[in-house]
Structures are given as C-alpha cells and as structure tokens.
Amino acid sequence: MNHLMIAPVLLPAVLGALQLLWMRGDLPLQRVFSSTGTALLVVVALILLGQASAGEVMVYRLGNWAAPFGIVLMLDRLAAMMVLLTSVVALIVQIYAIGSGWDRKGWHFHALWQFQLMGVCGAFLTGDAFNLFVFFEILLIASYGLMTHGGGEMRVRAGVQYVVVNLAGSALFLVALGVLYAVTGTLNMADMAARVAQMPPEDTALLRTGAVLIMLVFAIKAALVPLHFWLPSTYGNAPGPVAALFAIMTKVGVYAIIRFFTLIFPHDTVAGTLASEILLPAALITLAVGQIGIMGSRQLLRVGAFAALGSVGTLMIAVSQMNAEAMTAAIYYMVHSTLAAATLFLVLDLSARWRGDYWLRAGTVMPQSGLVSALFFAAAVAVVGLPPFSGFIGKLMVLDATAGAPAMPLIWSVILVTSLIALVGMSRVGTKLYLKPFGEVVLGGGGGSADFPTAPLRSDEPAPWLSVTAIMALLATVLALTVFAGPATRFAQATADQLYDPALYLKAVLADQEGTK
Amino acid sequence: MELLVSSAIGLLTAAGIYLVLRQRSFPVVLGMTLLSYAINVFLFATGRLVVNAPPVLQKGVTTYTDPLPQALVLTAIVISFGMTAVVVVMAIGSFLEGGDDRIDMPEADRIPETGDTQRGPRA
Questions:
Q1: Is A517 inside a domain boundary?
Q2: In terms of Cα–Cα distance, which of A75, A166, A87 is closest to A124?
Q3: A500 belongs to a structural domain
Q4: Global pTM?
C-alpha cells in the first residue's frame, strides 16, 4: 500500500491539532507552521499526481481490512488533480491572508484552515459513501468557523443561515445514504457500483429515489439553482481570503456529482438519463442567474460570489452532457474556474480594504489604484473567459463538446449571451471602482472595524507586497494553465477516459485483495 | 411496529421541516433537532426492523439484526449533537450582535446608507 495517499488527510489534521494545543496565541509560530504545512501538502499532492498519472487506480485500505468491510481511500487522476488544486489555492490564499492581516482578526484562523483542508482532501480521496459524509461534515464545521472569522453583525447573521442550510443538507445526505444502503446493502462506492449494475431494472424505484436525493445534496454544495440561495450572502459576508478558499468548496459538490454519476449511476443505466435531464436546465439557469447577478451586485464580494455561481453553471452544463468529451472540458474548466474565482475574490478584498469601503459606489480616489485596477482587469478577463486567459479555452472546449447535443442552440446561446452580460457587469465594477472615483462618499471610515483587518491604505504608503505577490501568483497559475493548455487538456482527456472506465476502479477495490484481513 | 416507526419518522420530519422554515432562530434550532431525530430513526430502520436478535455472529443463531446502521446512527448522533451546539452558539452570537433573533438578512445587507462604509449598520 502507498502510505503517502493518506498524508493529505493526516498532515492537516496533525498540524491543526498541534496549533490548538501548543501554539495557542502565538500567531508568528502558527503562520510558519501552517504555511509550511500547506506547502508540504502541495509537494505531497504533486508526488501523488505523478503517481496517479500512470493511469493506475490506487487503493489505501485503512487498517488493512478487505474492501467492502473496511474504509478505503482511492487515488485516481481526478482525485489527485483535485487535491493538488486545493493545496495550491490554499497555499497562495493563506499567504494572502497572512499578508493582509486577516488571520489576526480572530482566534484559530490557521487551525481552522488546516481542518478545512483535511475535510476537502478527505472528501476527494475517500472511496466510501459514509466516509464522504464524515469528511463533508469536517470541512463544513471548519468552514463555519472560517466564515464567521472576525465576527461582525452581518457576517454572523449570514453564518447562521449558512449553518442552517448546511445542516438541512447534511440531514438530506443521511437520508440519501440510508436509502442507498437499504437498497444495495453496502456503503463502499465501488461495491455499490457493482451491485447497482446487477440490479434488475424493475426493482430500481427506490434506487432512483436515492440517486436523485444524493444529487440534490451535492447540488446544495455546488450551489445549483434553485439550491443556491445560501451562496451570495455567505460569500458576500465572509472574509475575503475565506471566500477565495470557498471557491474550492462548490467544486467539492461538483466533484461528488461527477464521481457518483460516472461510477455508481452511469448515464443510460439504472438511473437512466434522469441526472442529465435535471442537471442541464438547472445548470443553464445557474449560469444565467450568476452572470446577471454580477450586473446587479452592489457589494464587492457579492460580485465575486455571483461570478463563482456563474462558473458553476458553465461547469455543470459540461458535466450534464455525461460523455467523455464534455467531461474533458468540465475538468479543464473546473481547474480554471477555481483559480479565477479565487483570484477575483482576493482582488476584490484588496480593493475593499484599500478603499475602506465594501460597497460598489464611486468614492474618493483609491491609493495605488493603477496597480489594483490592473490586477482587477486581469482577474475579470480570466473570470469572464476572454483571451488570453484559460477561461477562453475552457469555454471554447465546453462549446465544442456541446456542439452535437440536442439542446445545442439553447446551450450556446445561454453561454454566449451570459458571457456578454458578465463582461458588461465586470466593466461596470471596474469603471465604478477605478476609472470614475469622483463620488461624494469620502472613503476610509471603516478601518479597524470588524469588516476590515487593517486601516485603509494611505496614499503615501507602499503597497503591502505580500498580498500583491499572492494575487500575482494566483494569476500566474491561471496563465500557466493557458500556456500549458496542451498538456493540461491531454491530462483532462486521460482523466475523463479513466472516469468512463469504472471497471478499473472496481477492479482496484474489489479484486486484488491479497494480504488483507 | 413498522407502522409505529414509519409514522414516528413522518411526524418528526414534518414537525422538523415546519420549524426549520420559521423566521426565528430558536424554532429553527428545535426544528433541526427534530429533523436529526427523525433521520436517526430512519437510518436505524434502513437495516430492516428486527426485534430481539443479536448484531454479532453467534453459534446456533440464524436471525441477526444489521449492526452497520447502528454504527452509522452513532456517528450521526455525535455529529448532530455537535452541530446543534455550534448552531446554538452562532444563533446567540447573532442575537447579541444584531439585537434580534431573526434568521433572514436585514435590509442593510443589500443597501448602503450614505457615508456608511461598513457592510451593515453600526450599533
């Protein structure tokens, strides 16, 4: 067994606990340990990605118990890629959080950050449906703490809503798992897939109910319309770096939908075409709501929240096609949209802090506005999907993959029209913030309050280099995804092919069990 | 017994959902608790209802009760217990910060007052 596979779960768990036990109140030490830990996680994820690229599906049997009885962790291309994406985003955003002073606004920021990473990595790696629930809970509990980090009335109020929605989602998750267990008698995902495939078609009513229930659960996490209501006020009121990290959280929902509906309920078998029939309209409306929301936002982080919503819509359009070509596009776009949304959140947070105002309205001239506006311009171009950034390639791949679909005219028109709407919306934000700063509002009154980690930047101060470097590093990853679009696409292609060959996954878990208990 | 268990699950779920949809945080917390009870009983029933049967292999016994849902319920109870504590603390925090226990976002979350640079009204 490859023991490195469990490192993305163990490393953050140990570090988080250590920070609570031994580094309480010692912020410099927490910063050093936490960022070193996340950097180590990037290294581990790179090694795992290298191993997974060989095409083999690797299994880690906890306690060395045989498969349907013990819990297994699985590492295939998709899981390895998502762990790497998580760790890279987490490292850069964490550096931004340190540079911006957000981690100073409350207790245990870095410990919660590590527990969040533990939950997210675990959710990507696990091969057991109930274990997935447990990791979802871990990442949610950590996210409740992070979301309300720093306090303040609106943030705590939004936090209560976020907690209640997710508690209801967890309740639904348990119901769905109960139904699936009652029908199949197993919780191991590979075993469940094998049993579902053998089920006679006339006995599948309850199974289809379970499939739809579990899709609803993941749709809440992915924030698909009409289950998206928690997202704008959560992301809009969270601290900027936390909102940037949450860009990966909606992708956990998308990942789970991809995993369940390629492995356990593949297209045109037991659950039939049910999933894609529900997902496609929901995805189209999500995209439209997100991009129109950018136009209508009056608060900076909400712009990012709606942009993230729109990117989930585009992503799910590709996923709902349920074929390998569209899945290639979805995987490429998933990486791009996570990086781009995180960049946008950081730039918006930077602008809000330097202006000392979260509202989208003309005010006095912002210091260093040239630098920030350049960063915003790049982030907005990446999010909307214009060349030269990878969003353009991603959207092109999605359009190309849906060219043969029956709903092609509708899909194309929604994607293209909403791209224009998003472009206009982003132009509006940029114009108001950076080009026309001659309003009547005198900015800078909010420094030192719960909403801001630092006082607004004065015009004679130099730019805090750590925050700016972090944003540039994220932009560099987006650029790298564009420059190396060829290898990235080939990897996405191989990942999609692996997803649509579930026999590999099943064989890895259920066969080859020598030496287990 | 099946009728008793299923109607109990149904009643608890219905009451829970009704309470969760209220606009004050206290009924919502109670609703979440009821909902988690309903789900625990439901999970328990997914292993089929068997009375007076052992969960662990024994000699000379042919009927068993499924031990796995019991383990699942145990996990679910621990998690929902912890989550209830979290949501109560957050609801109290929201009450202390905002001065009321409403669960919906106030108007000030969307519309800025002139000259106010924070995201909401200051006390």
A1: no
A2: A75
A3: yes
A4: 0.93
pLDDT digits (tens, 9 = 90+) for A356-403: 778 887 776 677 778 888 999 999 999 998 888 888 999 999 999 999
Predicted confidence (pLDDT) at residue B14 exceeds the cutoff of 70:
yes
Q: Which helix (H) or strand (E) element contains residue A58?
A: strand A58-61
**Domain tally, chain B:** 1
Q: Give how many domains chain A has, as a whole number.
A: 1
Residue B38: domain span: 2-51+66-103
**Residue tagged 């208990």 (tokens):** A517
pLDDT grade for A70, boundaries at 50, 70 and 90: confident
Chain B positions in Cβ-Cβ contact with residue A141 (cut-off 8 Å)? 82-83, 86
Residue B77 touches partner A, C-beta closer than 8 Å: no
A442–B110 CB contact, under 8 Å? no
A50 inside 8 A of chain B by CB: no
Nearest to B46 among A137, A164, A181 (CB): A181
Q: Which residue of B has its CA nearest to A239?
A: B119
Smallest Cα distance from A136 to chain B, Å: 11
User: What is the H or E stretch that residue A75 is in?
Assistant: strand A72-75
Rounded Cα distance, A39 and A60, in Å: 23
| Chain A residues touching residue B39 (CB < 8 angstroms) | 171, 174-175, 178
Could you give the CA distance from residue A297 to residue A305 in angstroms, rounded to a whole number? 9
Query: CB contact, 8 Å: A191 with chain B?
Result: no
| B57-87 pLDDT per residue, tens | 888 888 888 888 888 999 889 988 899 999 9
